[in-house]
Amino acid sequence: MIRTRAGRARAGGPGRYALGAVGGLLAAFAGLALAQLVAAAVRPEAAPLTAVGGAVVDGTPAGVKEWAIRSFGTDDKLVLTLGIGAVLAVAAIAAGLLAVRRPAAGTALAAAFGVLGAAAALGRPEAAWQDALPSLVGGCAAAGVLYLLVRAIPRPRPRPSGAGPPGALDRRGFGRLAVAVLALSAGAGYAGRRLGAFGDAGATASRAGLVLPPPAAAAPPVPAGSDLRIPGATRFITPVREFYRVDTALVIPRVNADTWRLTVRGEGVSTPLTLGLRELLARPLVEHDATLTCVSNEVGGPYAGTARWLGVRLADLLREAGVRPPSQGGRADQLVARSVDGMTLGTPVETVMDGREALLVVGMNGEPLPFRHGFPVRMIVPGLYGYVSACKWLRELRLTTFAAYDAYWVRRSWAQRAPVKTQSRIDTPRPSAEVAAGRVAVAGVAWALHRGIARVEVRVDAGPWRGARLGAADGNDTWRQWVWPWEAAPGGHTLEVRATDGVGAVQTGERAGTLPDGATGWHAVTVRVRG
After folding, report:
1. Distance between CA 321 and CA 304 in Å, rounded?
2. How far apart are CA 387 and CA 250, in angstroms?
3. Which residue has the higher pLDDT, 413 or 63?
4. Which of 34, 235, 249, 347 has its CA 20 to 30 A from that of 432?
5. In the chain, count of helices (H) and strands (E)?
6. Burial 40-67 (b: 16+ CB within 10 A, else e)
7. b vs e for 75-103, b when ≥16 Cβ sit within 10 Å of the residue's Cβ?
8. What span, in angstroms and rounded, lies between the C-alpha atoms of 211 and 213?
9. Which 3-state string (H, E, C) describes 345-379?
10. What stretches of 123-222 show up as alpha helix (H) in DSSP?
């Protein structure tokens, strides 16, 4: 019996393991806080959680990404960050428990996570060797803190035979050290946030001080009747704060407009260009209303929006650089846009130069681009899904061929060329809504970008198709609102909608998922009508 109690004392007992788990969590917090402070001096994307999160996004199969977008919407990045944090917390507890019995092994496990974060940071696009520093410093700090905390855990003394269980732990020394670690870590984390905010101050000031010149080619007013103002229906022009955001950036790049540069180079470029924002704004600016939509948008989904964009015609810039489209003998058929965070999108050169208003955008709904939508400059190409045309935080345009280079999403099983498919959506009544019998306004939006919408039809319970009233058209590059008055009878009913585009093609009812080039099918909602 004496050996058993002594063995329990040597093992530490449950109290020591509890303190070891707490020590592991405190060590992880200290490491992350110090890493955040170092990342503020290097670049925000080098912070461990951000670097590992980016690596997870890059390595996740396309089907899983689609599931995440469907399940969590624009909160998918928050869910990913919380998930990584939870995994790190479990690993920190494991390191703390291991360190109680084997301090060297536990601290080595803590340091290993720093190495993992450094590897993830170095594997990110645009990475430099300095990007490894935050994770390495954080890993070393976590290992050192864990070692000190474990050493501070007192060992219970075994009592003589027959005197009862081992004595209680004296936790006061551990507690004082833990409080000190917590305070210093919180201070480092706060300093990192403040330093990061200071680094962002220049970018914020550059946007606040930016005055957009008036357009040389102003868009006409949105036609009267474009917005049917049906309660529950989407507004024709999407407010900036409501415009959807789908991208892979866990940290929104905050680019200083005063130091921003855009380069144009590659095959068929006889005159390479390098432009700052001032030079870009000195060119004729064009206003254009256009609807953007994401290829991840399922039938009836929310990832579409319409804005009034202000920018420079991309085709004019390419011609100035000596670029010709393939139909005129040009050598390049793909324009690769690269973001400041390393994202690449590939756009057909022929499409960019076919006369549509493909723009390098500087303004959105009368104000400079918000940071979350690509400040200071982004691309839009009406008629193409965003993943092949709408590069945010743009810094480079490189001319190449589709045969020679696959952009980010193409390497992940999406199609090289992605014209937007005809879609229509019921906004009101909502799925599973309960409405009163009688006349009900069924309304929504439809789009066939760069082709326009000629007709929208609705049917009830697979009955005959009925024509809806269309809102006024604002060109072929925007969606159109529609409304259909339904004489609703009591009971459960299914409403479906389909659209016909400007060249007479009817939206297909065949259901297909978003991969590899956009979803198809008719949107349907089921409602209950009260008698």
Report:
1. 33
2. 17
3. 413
4. 235
5. 11, 19
6. bebbbbbbbbbbbbbbebbebeeeebbe
7. ebbeebbeebeeebeebbbbbbbbbbeee
8. 6
9. EEEEHHHHCCCCCCEEEEEECCEECCHHHCCCCEE
10. 133-152, 172-208
**The pLDDT value given to residue 10:** 46
User: What is the token pair recorded at 190?
Assistant: 């706060």
CA 390/CA 227 separation, integer angstroms: 25
Closest listed residue to residue 134, CA positions, set 221, 40, 225:
40
pLDDT at 197 over 80: no
- Candidates 88, 107, 114; CA nearest to 151 is 107
The 10s digit of each residue's pLDDT in 459-475 is 999 999 999 999 999 99
pLDDT tens readout for residues 91-137: 999 999 999 999 999 999 999 999 999 999 898 877 889 999 999 99
Contact 402, 416 (CB under 8 A): yes
SS3 string, 225-250, reads CCCCCCCCCCCCCCCHHHCCCCCCCC
Please tell me the distance from the alpha carbon of residue 262 to that of residue 274, in angstroms, as a whole number. Answer: 6
**Token pair belonging to 252:** 């929104």
Cβ–Cβ contacts within 10 Å for residue 328, how many?
9
Residue range 138-150: mean pLDDT, rounded = 93
- Nearest-angstrom CA–CA distance, 371 and 341: 13
Per the prediction, the chain carries an average pLDDT of 91
Sole residue written with tokens 């050192």: 144
- From residue 219, alpha-carbon distances to 281, 286, 308, 366, 379 in Å are 17, 8, 8, 11, 18
CA distance 23 to 26: 5
Contact call for residues 53 and 81 (beta carbons, < 8 A): yes
3 state SS for 298-346: CCCCCCEEEEEEEEEEHHHHHHHCCCCCHHHCCCCCEEEEEECCCCEEE
Q: Give the C-alpha distances (Å, rounded to integers) separating 501 from 111, 303, 459, 520, 522.
A: 59, 20, 18, 14, 14
pLDDT tens, position by position, 283-296: 999 999 999 999 99
Judge whether residue 54 has pLDDT over 50: yes
Write out pLDDT tens, residues 373-392.
999 999 999 999 999 999 99
- CA torsion sign, 303 to 308 to 311 to 312? positive
Q: Identify the three-state secondary structure at position 53.
A: helix
Neighbouring-strand partners of residue 499? 456
Say what the pLDDT of residue 166 is.
46
> Across residues 39-47, what is the average pLDDT?
88
Residues ≥6 apart with Cβ < 8 Å to 397: 262, 263, 264, 265, 266, 317, 318, 335, 336, 337, 338
Question: Tell me, what's the pLDDT at 319?
Answer: 97
Backbone angles phi, psi at 169, to 5 degrees: -75, 145
Tokens 């529609």 sit on residue = 482
